[in-house]
Design a protein that fits this description.
This protein is α/β, with parallel strands linked by helices. The protein has one domain: Aldolase class I (TIM Barrel). Helices cover 39% and strands 15% of the residues. The chain contains 11 helices and 10 strands. The strands form 2 sheets. The chain has an 8-stranded mixed β-sheet with strand order 1-2-5-6-7-8-9-10, with helices on both faces. A two-stranded parallel ribbon has the order 3-4. Strand 5, helix 5 and strand 6 form a beta-alpha-beta unit. Helix 4 packs parallel to helix 5. The protein is globular, with a radius of gyration of 18 Å. The protein starts with 22 loop residues before the first helix and ends with a helix.
C-alpha cells in the first residue's frame, strides 16, 4: 500500500463531521446507556453518530462489544467476549419502543466462540423487537456465521424486512482488510439471503487502494449474488494501529459509482464519503421497495 507511514492522512474539506449534540442526541445517548446497550455508532467510531442520534436513530449492536475477529479496518474491540446476555434482546426491544423508531437496525460483533455464532440470540432479538414494536420495520446487518446456512436460517426464519451482509472491500484487498472473512463466502451468504426471498444489501469501503475496475467487478459480483441495495463509503482510519487511508475519494467519484450501480441493476445505491451501512437505512428500505414494484 502506498501510504505505509504510521500516520493519519489529512482529511479534505468535504469530510467535515458534525460534532454530536442537541436534545435528540442526548435522549438517544441516555436510553442506550441506561439500558446497558451497545451500538456500532459508538464502538465503530461512526462519523454520522451526531446526525443519526440527533434524529433519534441508532444501530444496535448485540452479543456484546468484543469481537472474536480482528479486521484491520474496524474500531470494534477484539478479544475474548463476555458470556452471552440472555436479557439483551428484550432491552433492545424496549429501547426501540422508547425511541419510537419506525425502522430499527441491528448488527453484532462476530462470535466465532459460540457454537451457532450467536444466531439464536439474533433470532430472539428480532422476535423481541417485533413483539414490542409490531409497526417497526427491522433491518439486520449480519456476520457470515462462517457460512453455515443452518445458522443463517435461524435469523432468516424471523423474517426481518431487509438483510445486509457487508463485503467491505474488493476481492484483492480482502485478505489484508478482513481477518477471518472470505470474499467468496460473503458472496455465498448474500446469495443465500436473496435466494431465501429477502432484499439483500451489502456495502464496501473505498480509499484502501482499490482500483476503479475492481469496484465495477465487485458490483458485478454482488448483482450476480442477488444483492440489490448497495452502500459505498470512504474508509476512515480509526487509529494508528489500523490500516492507513490510501486516498480520500472525491464526492464526484462517489456520484459516478452511484450512477453506474443504478444503471447496472441495483435498486438503491447509497454512495457518499460519509455513508455507512445503516446510514439512511429507512429511506433505502422505502426506495428499494418502491423500485421493486416498478420492475
Amino acid at each position: 500500500m502506498k501510504n505505509s507511514e504510521n500516520q493519519y492522512k489529512r482529511k479534505p474539506s468535504w469530510l467535515r463531521i458534525r460534532l454530536p449534540g442537541g436534545e435528540g442526541y442526548r435522549k438517544v445517548k441516555q436510553i442506550v446507556e441506561s439500558h446497558g446497550l451497545h451500538t456500532i455508532c459508538s464502538s465503530g467510531n461512526c462519523p454520522n453518530l451526531g446526525e443519526c442520534w440527533g434524529a433519534g436513530t441508532a444501530t444496535f449492536m448485540i452479543l456484546g462489544e468484543i469481537c472474536t475477529r480482528s479486521c484491520r479496518f474496524c474500531a470494534t474491540r477484539t478479544g475474548k467476549p463476555l458470556p452471552v446476555d440472555e436479557q439483551e434482546p428484550q432491552r433492545v426491544a424496549e429501547s426501540v419502543k422508547l425511541m419510537n423508531l419506525k425502522h430499527c437496525v441491528i448488527t453484532s460483533v462476530d462470535r466465532d466462540d459460540l457454537e451457532d455464532g450467536g444466531a439464536s440470540i439474533w433470532a430472539e432479538a428480532i422476535k423481541a423487537v417485533r413483539k414490542e414494536n409490531p409497526e417497526t420495520t427491522i433491518e439486520v446487518l449480519i456476520p457470515d456465521f462462517q457460512g453455515r446456512k443452518e445458522h443463517l436460517d435461524l435469523v432468516l426464519k424471523q423474517k426481518p424486512d431487509i438483510v445486509a451482509h457487508n463485503l467491505e472491500t474488493v476481492r484483492r484487498l480482502t485478505p489484508m482488510v478482513r481477518s477471518a472473512a472470505n470474499y467468496d463466502r460473503s458472496l455465498q451468504v448474500i446469495s443465500w439471503i436473496a435466494e431465501s426471498g429477502f432484499t439483500a444489501k451489502s456495502g464496501i469501503m473505498v480509499g484502501l487502494g482499490e482500483k476503479d475496475e475492481e469496484i465495477m467487478e465487485t458490483m458485478d459480483d454482488l448483482l450476480e449474488a442477488g444483492c440489490r441495495v448497495m452502500t459505498i463509503g470512504q474508509y476512515l482510519q480509526p487509529s494508528l494501529k489500523h490500516l492507513p487511508v490510501e486516498e480520500y475519494i472525491h464526492p464526484d467519484i462517489f456520484a459516478k459509482y452511484r450512477e453506474v450501480g443504478l444503471k447496472e441493476g441495483f435498486r438503491v445505491v447509497e454512495s457518499n464519503p460519509l455513508v455507512r451501512s445503516s446510514y439512511h437505512a429507512e429511506q433505502q428500505l422505502v426506495e428499494g421497495s418502491r423500485s421493486k414494484t416498478q420492475v
